[in-house]
């Protein structure tokens, strides 16, 4: 009786898997084993896979081919001070480097002497454009990327697959312009909630 039941289930399982599973699906390669030996129980393996299935299930490597080209427009600079914002971008660059992506960075920093400005991070070149000290918070430098328009030269030379620009700030206007004119996909990342920040540190934002 047990063997008969197993045979019925096996038949139903085989017809179901052949009807709904594609030829390359592990279900279509399922094997069904039964045994009439009194010392062994009947076994039905509906999810048996081929010997190569284990290699198909392995996690793919982090590197992509070809690598993605990214233009990172970032203000204030995360490379000359310590903060959560700075840590976030350094970690991002570390993982982009691990993935083999090609990143070009444009930032601004008028608070640091020119000869002390960092020129690279995780192997990626850092370009510096002219900026101005933000009058309401003089610890940071912001920029419109004017009059130099180094971002335009960067886009022309690198032809990136993606522009990533930080906000809120003023460099986002340059990023929007470059993305629109050169028809490059744009990503904006938002890092400071100004209403809350203004109430906390400036005291006059309603």
Core attributes:
6-stranded mixed sheet, 19% strand, 2 domains, two-stranded antiparallel ribbon, single chain, Rossmann fold
Written account of the structure:
The structure is a single chain. It is built from 6 helices and 10 strands. With 206 residues, it is an alpha/beta fold. The chain folds into 2 domains: 2-56, no CATH class; 69-201, Glycogen Phosphorylase B (Rossmann fold, 3-Layer(aba) Sandwich). A 6-stranded mixed beta sheet has the order 5-6-4-3-9-10. It comes from Skeletonema marinoi. GO terms for molecular function: glycosyltransferase activity. The chain crosses the membrane at residues 162-179.
Pattern of helices and strands:
HEEHEHEEEEEHEHEH
Radius of gyration: 29 Å
Number of helices: 6
CATH topology of the largest domain: Rossmann fold
Gross geometry: globular
Strand order of the largest sheet: 5-6-4-3-9-10
The major pleated sheet works out as: 6 strands, mixed
The assigned CATH architecture of the largest domain is 3-Layer(aba) Sandwich
Which segments are poorly predicted (pLDDT under 50) over 5 or more consecutive residues?
16-41, 43-51
What's the pLDDT, averaged over the residues? Answer: 76
Assign the CATH superfamily of the largest domain.
Answer: Glycogen Phosphorylase B
Percentage of residues in strands: 15-25%
Category by helix and strand content: alpha/beta
The figure for the number of domains is 2
Helix content: 25-40%
* Gap from first CA to last CA: 80 Å
What is the CATH class name of the largest domain?
A: Alpha Beta
